[in-house]
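$ run holo --ligand "uridine-5'-diphosphate-glucuronic acid" --emit C-alpha cells
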Amino acid sequence: MNIACIGAGYIGSVTGASLSMMGHRCTIIDIDPAKVDAINAGQSPIYEPGLQSLIQEQAGSRLFASTSYQSVYEADVVFIGVGTPSLEDGSADLSFIRTATARVANHLNPDHFTVIVIKSTVPVGTSEEVTSILEQISGLESGEHFAVASNPEFLREGHALEDVFFPDRIVVGALDDRAKEMLRELYAEFMRPDILETISLRLGIREGQVMAPPVYFETDLRSAEMIKYASNAFLAVKISYINEIARMCEAVEANVLEVAYGMGLDSRIGNQFLQVSSGWSGSCFPKDTAELLIASQKHGQELSIVKAAIESNYRMHLYIVDKVLDKLGSLHNRRIGILGLTFKPDTDDTRHTQAAVLIRRFIECGASLQVHDPKGMENFCQTNGELPVTYCHSGELVAEQADAIVLVTHWLEYKDLDWGHMHKRMKNPYVLDTRNFLDSVEIRKLGFNYEGLGWIADKGEQDASRPTLSHVV
Ligand code: UGA
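-- output --
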C-alpha cells in the first residue's frame, strides 16, 4: 500500500519504518526539515534502539520523508502521529492534530478512497472532530471518499520496534466497512507467525520465542480512543500503587522486592509494572492521566483513583529528596550527583522526566547538582536550561566531592561504573538507588552507605538487582 505518516516523532518514524519493512511504500511528513533530511539520509530523527539501522536500510527504497503533504494524494492510508501535549489546565492540546488534519484535507484525492488513521493519543470524540474538519475543508464526504479510524499506539519508548512488531493487541476503532477491510489487510502480515519469526531474526528481537500473533480487536471509534487512556492510566495507577507499598514496606521493615514478586505470581495481577521507582514520568503517562482526569471532571465522573495516582506520584518524587535530606541532615551547600536524566533508560527523551522535579527540589533546598545521562543531556539542557546544574561527561564524575549520589534512571552502563574510584572521590559515600538496580552487596563492600527503595539494606543483604527466588521451591 501507499502510506503517509504525519509526524516524524516516536509514532510516525517507527510506524513509517516498520511498515516500509513490511513492504509498503511510506512517506513520513514533518514540518521540521532537519528531521526530514535526516530520514532521507538514512538517519533516525530520534534515539530508539534498532531504529537507526531500520531507517538506513529502508530510506530511499520504500521509505521517504518530506515537508510536503503531496504524497497524501496517492496514499491509501494516512497515519496521523503528531504530538498532543498538555495545555496549562492539563487537557490535551489538539492544535497539531487540527493543523495536520487541515493539511491532509487539502491533499485528499476525490477519485481514491483514503483511510485517515489517528495514532496519536487523543481525547474521546476527536476522530469525529477530525472527520468533520476533513469534510469541511476538502468538500468530500466521509464514507464516500474517505473514512477516519482510530488505531491507538501502545509502544514503549526504548522498546518501540519490539512493541510495534510484537504487540499484545492491535486495536482498531472504525465504523466504515471499507476502512476496516483496508486496515485488516494492512495489518495482515503482523498476524502471521512465519513473518514475525523472520522479523524476529532480522531485528534480533524475541529470538527463539514462540511467535503468538497479537489479538486484532475491532471496536467503535470512541471506545478505541478510550482504551488508550484507560490503559495508560491503569499502568500509572499500578506503579503508584507499588511505590506506595514500597514506602509502607520501609515503614514496617518488609521488603518490596519480595512483596512485588509474590504479588506478581498471581496471574490476575501479573508481574509487570511493579518495579519501584522515584515515580512514573515521561511524555505519555503525565499528560494522559492529566487529560483523562480533567475530561472525567468535565463529565461529572471524576476518576478519583487516577487523581490519587497523580498526587501519589508527585509525593514519590519528593520522597526521594526527603530521604537524602534525612540522611544528610541538611541539603544546604551539599553536592548531589544525579545518575540519569531521561524518564527511563534507552531513550533520549527527557520530557516531563522525574529527574527535573527532583533536581528542582534539591536546588530549592540549597544543594548544588552534578548530573549525567548517556543520551539525554542535550535534551535535558534544552528543556530545563534554567536549572543551574553541572553536566558531567561521564557517570563517574558525578561523584566528585559529592555528599550523595541518586541513581534516577537505570541505564545498564551505570552498573559498570568504576564505583571503587567513585567512592574515593566522594565527600560522603551515600548512594540512593531509586530503581533497586545496583548490586547492593558489591556496592556496600566498597564502603558505600547504600539505600534502595522499599527495603532496608541493613536488614537483608540480598542483591536488590536480582529477584530473590531462594524461597521458591
Ligand atoms: C507508555 C506505555 O507503557 C505504552 O504502552 C504507551 O504506548 C506509551 O506510554 C504512550 O502512550 O505512547 P512509555 O511512556 O514509553 O510507554 O514508558 P513506560 O515503559 O510505560 O514507562 C513510563 C514510566 O513509568 C517511566 O518513567 C518508567 O520508568 C516508569 N515505570 C515503568 C516504573 O516506575 N515502574 C515500572 O514498573 C514500569
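-- notes --
The chain has two domains: 2-219, 232-459.
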